[in-house]
Amino acid sequence: MNKIIVLMSTVLLVGLIVWWFFGKRKVEAVTATKQGDKQIVEIVVDGGYKPGVIELERGMPTEIVFIRKDASACFEEVVLPDFGVRTHLPLNKPYTVTIDPKEAGEYKYACGMNMFFGKVVVK
Ligand SMILES: [Cu+2]
To answer: DSSP 3-state assignment of 5?
Structure first.
């Protein structure tokens, strides 16, 4: 009897862990909108970066418009190391970061303290 209880709680625990790591991490990707010879995408900064993943076309100049609604000091800065960007984000005022994604790949970016993350996927 005890064995069954242990087994059942183990299964439940494993299920919970799997859900926590894989269920919650499902972030939707948003593709940048093409406008002439550039592409534009908006990221709302509010308790995190939304959307968490943006998809860009390789070789096309990109404007990432950060709209910071979160006043916490954490989001004062955004860092895109692969694109040489470290900049302050004004509060409640769209701020455009221009990058030129030349190579396909996945690039992480973060808040100034490296606590919150977002991802740029170049295809
Ligand atoms: Cu932070």
So the answer is: helix
